[in-house]
Amino acid sequence: MSKKGKILVAMSGGIDSTVAALMLNDEGYEVIGITMKTWDYATAGSSKKETGCCNLDSFNDARMAAVQHGFAHYVLDIREEFGGAVIENFVDEYLAGRTPNPCVMCNTHIKWNALLKRADALDCEFIATGHYVNVRPENNRFVLSKGIDATKDQSYVLWGLSQACLGRSVYPLGNYHKTQIRQMAMDYGYPELAKKSESYEICFVPDNDYRNFLRKKVTGLEESVDGGNFVLQDGSIVGKHKGYPFYTIGQRKGLDIAMGRPMYVTGILPETNTVVLGDEIDLERSEMAVSRINMIKYDVITDAMKADVKIRYKSSPVPSILTPEAGIVKVHFDTPVKGIAPGQSAVFYEGDDVVAGGIILN
């Protein structure tokens, strides 16, 4: 029995999760690797070759690393759990005129719960992943904070994790830069892994074409929404569009409408199949409402609390004031923010620490 105990490590077959597993194995944990199959294109009737984390090559890469370093490895099929929650939510959100974040939904409701369930079955005290974040105990809570590599920090996509999940999670890569992890892969004898490209596509959307995915998932969708109105801020009709689910807030390209100047999607009204257009300045907002709050660092958000707020994974945090109201948090930005999209995640930071996160309501 290992001195550090048993740990279940999620292994996608990519560089980060593989190096994380090997680091923990070297540190003296009894490592058990697990690769989760969330999706395959054959199930959806697609002929596209699988890419990213859900293909046979990735499974084999993960298993090979485990075998070569002497620890167990399993493949866990969670397609049914994944499809029922993540994909249905993805479709429903677009049909409601919002822009979903399926990776956050998957992390919050599927992957970590699946990991904890299997960890318990295998008598593992901890679970681990290759995310670039850190967790520490503080004031009877477990605080999620940014990884030191600002270009790889993934705290934004983990805001929904419960205290129970954070308390049992280990993140070996949080205090490393990606360049160091690539060198470690080389040192472990995996030069191909060190050079392996990373996929940023949604795992179940071929070629990142969510519009075509919606067409295939919802029978008759294209016909039922085609021909709605493009309108300006004052309500005047300026053209016809291809259906409100096929547009997102902030979109400029692909509108197929000539106005003599760049136009942007500033609003989506599903009840009337209307897409609102405006100038770039019309995307600016000074406040927003956030719902489904998950507290991380504190038990509650106090009135007029200061925080830095991110509205997208790659956006820069904006200094803001948080004001709690009935079931929501109002965010008042110090400077106007462009492209706030209902359905996306908002994450509140205090320095490097995640205070809380939630879903943008409006």
Q: What can you tell me about this protein's structure?
A:
The chain starts with 5 loop residues before the first strand and ends with a strand. The protein has three domains: 6-130 and 172-207, 3-Layer(aba) Sandwich (Rossmann fold); 226-273, no CATH class; 283-360, Elongation Factor Tu (Ef-tu), domain 3. With 362 residues, the chain is an alpha/beta fold. The chain is 26% helix and 29% strand. The strands form four sheets. Strands 12-15-14-13-16-17 form a six-stranded antiparallel barrel. It is built from nine helices and 17 strands. Helix 3 (79-95) packs antiparallel against helix 4.
Helix content: 25-40%
Mean pLDDT: 92
* Total number of strands: 17
User: Which strand-content bin applies to the residues?
Assistant: 25-35%
Question: Keywords for this structure?
Answer:
362 residues, Rossmann fold, Elongation Factor Tu (Ef-tu), domain 3, globular, 9 helices, alpha/beta
